[in-house]
Amino acid sequence: MTDPSVAISGEGLLVPPPTRNLGQGLRNIADYGLTVYPDAIDADTLSAARDALYRAASSDAKRQRAVKFSLDYGEDDSNARVWNVLSRDPVFEELAFSPIAIAYVKALLGWPALLGNISANITGPGGGEMQLHADQIFVPEPWPANPQGLNVAWCLDDFTDANGATRFVPGSHKLNRAPREDEAGVETVPMEAPAGSAVIFESRVWHKTGFNRTADVRRAGVFAWYTTPIYRPQENWFLSLKPEVRQFASEDALTLLGWRSEGLGLVNGASPA
């Protein structure tokens, strides 16, 4: 079995230190597949987003609307996913269309790009691990030399090893393929980050939600997924998005949602917005 750690030239399973510098962050992504932006969310936005997410998750549970995803946790009810948070509360627009996220999207994927999805994951006490995967499994192998997507994970709670922080195989993006079935047990490292941080990782790096070993701690994260414009968004914004999101969206937001188009998605040869 190929050892993914060789992809970082013998440095071992290390994660880069946090940085607010875009250039250093991009170097971290090139070397490790990920970077951490500390204090990416101000205290008021963090509190509002956390309250809104836990409220949405509670509403879904009461109404039996919780939906699993194919890479989720089987019958494990300690973990919950909340889909399409853009339509749940306006605070999530601040995350999806954050200048931090857009700067990384433009630098790594180019422009225009698309917001494929923004959903949330809450892992509860005893919550099991997700299957090890890479996010661009929709791209046929052999993969292109450049990533086709980018994930920005907004930490609404502290991400710790104990409470199920996302675990990575740093450098695995350099293998330029998804993990094989016999590689499901390769060594991973938790990406620990305090609440308010953004963990930014490209679509080829292998990762999974960690096992929540705590007795009473929940860990919530909002995951905004962006792709180059040739791929269909995971969320069908044209059907699921609240109209007021589009009504008050910025030009960058309209582009990411597919309402403002360049080259693809035109209407009678012109952008629909």
End-to-end distance: 50 Å
Numbering strands along the chain, what is their spatial order in the largest sheet? 1-7-4-9-3-2
How would a textbook summarize the main sheet?
A: 6 strands, antiparallel
The CATH homologous superfamily is termed q2cbj1_9rhob like domain
Detail the poorly predicted runs: 1-11
Provide mean pLDDT, rounded.
90
> What radius of gyration results from the CA coordinates?
18 Å
What characteristic shape results from the CA principal axes? Answer: globular
H/E order of the elements?
Answer: HEHEHHEEEEEEEHHH
Q: How many separate domains?
A: 1
Number of strands: 9
Overall SS class: alpha+beta
The first-level CATH class name: Mainly Beta
Strand content: 15-25%
Number of helical segments with 4 or more residues:
7
CATH third-level topology: Jelly Rolls
How does CATH name the architecture?
Sandwich
Q: What share of residues is helical?
A: 10-25%
Describe this structure in words.
This protein has 273 residues and is of the alpha+beta class. The chain has a single domain, classed as Jelly Rolls, CATH 2.60.120.620. It has helices spanning 22-32, 43-62, 91-96, 99-108, 237-240, 243-247, 251-256, and strands at residues 34-37, 79-82, 114-123, 149-155, 167-169, 189-190, 198-202, 206-208, 219-227. The strands form two sheets. The chain has a six-stranded antiparallel beta sheet with strand order 1-7-4-9-3-2. A three-stranded antiparallel beta sheet has the order 6-5-8, with no helix packed on it.
